[in-house]
Every structure is written in structure tokens, then in C-alpha cells.
């Protein structure tokens, strides 16, 4: 199977972790933004996290430079457009991009202006390339819960117009879900779908709480359900979908090396998994690379590929008619 030409679905990709290094340099030169270097190879060293990161927190340090150039409507629109263009060029047919609007207010943009600019970039890409998309609004777990209410309230006018879901991300602490029950509950009332980063850094119980307390329909990563029997059972029984990001999981030390990843065991035992990049630039990856890593490390078949593709389509927050069109790509592959 030639994975490079196969249709793909991506459900877990961060905008600020997927900015082209060339674009960062170009914007920094034009806007007078200080960055460590204007030499592309040197910038890549600043932006790409090594496989031997010590932790998730070290991995997250790589996001400060991209965010510096993501503070105007023009730049946000351009960066979003380019991400969808890059995905379309490797046969990604549908993509959900997530980002935290509150990280882009340094130069006075409103949350509404920020979300609107990202949607504009996505819509423009949809018009030019064979790809569809939606946006997920991330709330930072490191911020007070009041800020999550702000994102939920200001983002609701975009529901059905490009925004589909709410997310919690950033450094993971045990028991974080308790702090965000009210804002996520309000988001569900408004019609947001829910996906939560949990179980990435050794705390499987966070996945259980994300599902039971926050109503998570999908879990970002979820690797550590392997060490929490109750979380494992709930994910399997309720068919909660895991957004697996293999390279990122090695970098953040969710797993020590690719062959130790439990994704294939999950898949064989009936847990629904999807394969994703997490951050194309920070992890120096693509969907093609991620699938090739998985296929090289595990005994995966063409049927496994089809199962994961179908999982991804069905777990997506796309409209039903879009899902039907996405299923047709697989039939024709």
C-alpha cells in the first residue's frame, strides 16, 4: 500500500505547532519581530522538538516563536490557509485544526477577530484545494476557568460557520477536569462538540474524568488509559475515540519509543483510534510520516488502514453530508 497517495483524515492538529518555518521568517522580517535567526535551517532547530525531549513541558516550549508571528488577522489567515494547503498536498481530505484564541490577543485583536481570521483562511483553502475542514477552540488549562468561559461565549457565534468543538490543552495536571466542569457544560449546551487532551502524561484517571465529568466524545492522546483499568473500560465501552499522535507521543515521553506505543493493542482490542500529527512543524511530521511509522512498527494491514480511516470519518465533527463524501474517497482508493 502506497500511503502517500491514500486519502487521509486528520482530527488532531494544532495551528501554532504547524506554522511553516519559511513563513515565520517572512513575517518576522516584514513585521520587525525578533526571532533567533533568519536562516531556515537554524530556525528549524529552534522550532522542531527532538525525539529525546524530557517531558511535555519541554515540548511545549517550542510554541513561543510561532505565537509571536500569529498576532494579526492577516498572519492568522495566511498561516491557516498554508496549513490546509500542506495537508491537501498529501491527500488529507478533511482536517480539524485546533488553536487557543487567547494566545493571539497581544496586539489588541478581539477573540472574535481571531476566530474569524482563522475561519477565513480555512474557507479560502477549501475553495482552492480538495479538502474540507473545521475549527476546534482550545482553552488553556493553565489559565483560570473564567477564561474558558470567555472562549465559549465569544466563540458561539461561529458555531455552524466553521467552529465545531471545544478543547482543553496545555500542561496536564492530575484532576484538571474539576476546574472546567462549568464552562465545558455551558459549551455543550450551546452546541459545541467536546474533545479533551487527557492521559498524555501518565495520568490515566484524567481520561475517565474527561469523559464522565466533561462529556468528552474524543480524547486527545489518551495513552495512559493503559495504566488505569477504569478509564480503559469506559473508553472501550462508550466507544470514545482516541486521537493518537505517535511522533509527538515519543517526543513528550508519553511512550519511550515507537514500538512501545499501545495504539496497536488498543486497535486490536476494539478501542477506536485515529492517527494524527499533533504539530506538523514542532514534530517535523506529516500524516504520511505518521502512518508510515505505525505501519513500520506494527503488523498493520490494508484493512487496518480502512478501519482507522472509517473511525476518523465517523468520529469527526463534520456534517453528515461531508462524512458521506469522505467515505467515498476510501471506496475509490
TrEMBL record:
Binding site for substrate: 14, 16
Positions of the catalytic residues: 200
EC number assigned by the record: 3.5.4.4
Site (Important for catalytic activity): 221
Chemical reaction(s) catalysed: 2'-deoxyadenosine + H2O + H(+) = 2'-deoxyinosine + NH4(+); adenosine + H2O + H(+) = inosine + NH4(+)
Name of the coding gene: add
Keywords attached to this entry: Hydrolase, Metal-binding, Nucleotide metabolism, Zinc
Pfam family, one: A_deaminase
Similarity annotation: Belongs to the metallo-dependent hydrolases superfamily. Adenosine and AMP deaminases family. Adenosine deaminase subfamily.
NCBIfam families hit by this protein: aden_deam
An example molecular function term from Gene Ontology annotations: hydrolase activity
Cofactor(s) it depends on: Zn(2+)
Protein name: Adenosine deaminase
EC top class, as a word: hydrolase
Presence of the UniProt keyword tRNA-binding in the record: no
UniProt organism field: Rossellomorea oryzaecorticis
